[in-house]
Amino acid sequence: xxxxxxxxxxxxxxxxxxxxxxxxxxxxxxxxxxxxxxxxxxxxxxxxxxxxxxxxxxxxxxxxxxxxxxxxxxxxxxxxxxxxxxxxxxxxxxxxxxxxxxxxxxxxxxxxxxxxxxxxxxxxxxxxxxxxxxxxxxxxxxxxxxxxxxxxxxxxxxxxxxxxxxxxxxxxxxxxxxxxxxxxxxxxxxxxxxxxxxxxxxxxxxxxxxxxxxxxxxxxxxxxxxxxxxxxxxxxxxxxxxxxxxxxxxxxxxxxxxxx
Length: 260
Known about the structure:
The structure is a single chain. The protein has helices spanning 4-18, 46-54, 58-72, 93-97, 104-110, 118-127, 131-156, 175-185, 187-197, 200-218, 228-251, and strands at residues 31-32, 42-44, 78-82, 86-90. The protein is mostly helical and 260 residues long. Helices cover 58% and strands 6% of the residues. The chain has a four-stranded antiparallel sheet with strand order 1-2-4-3. It is built from eleven helices and four strands; from the N terminus they run αββααββαααααααα. The chain folds into two domains: 4-91, Gyrase A, domain 2 (2-Layer Sandwich), CATH 3.30.1360.70; 102-251, Isoleucyl-tRNA Synthetase, Domain 1 (Orthogonal Bundle). The longest helix is centred in the middle third of the chain and has 26 residues, at 131-156.
């Protein structure tokens, strides 16, 4: 499954290395989701950092990156430059919603029990002594249980969720729904960063945050009042959330309850 942030970082790294910019590792390249979505799905300030070493103006470096990355990554809908030298990436719906096609087998490859060292489990036991964390974890378990129950009920009512054709699916495409998709797309990188920095809390907090986004996304949704096409869109998003949360719970050997 495509990791948008990682591909952008890789592209910038290759371009800067060709320009002989002195950088010790890719970790020096910051590509983040901006708080203000008018600046795109991802943004980077690397032109500001690299300008001095290149003896160029940050805007000139940013414009050069823009021109090179447009050719390198045609799947990015738009790449824009903003003062004083930011490069902003707009993925477009096709790329963003592609995260919902992540195969079930990919989740275990991203994160599983083998990735959770003994001291990570020890850290979990310490966190479980904190009332706030226990409450957040219970909420995450509830999200899994809630989605599982909804999907089970729909199957019992005759909905063949795995056999839905693309033309039968309609997404809401709200800013909040797209925020969920960006969070889902970041799962592999968040896991890799947590392993690299030896911070199990980061994976757990990622799952907790994803669960909270589910509540925000569907707090007022009456699923039985959705037309079938929008229902299928909601199901796809929910199922991706459920699979991601279950992956985290299973890896830490925390129960993923079907009922709560």
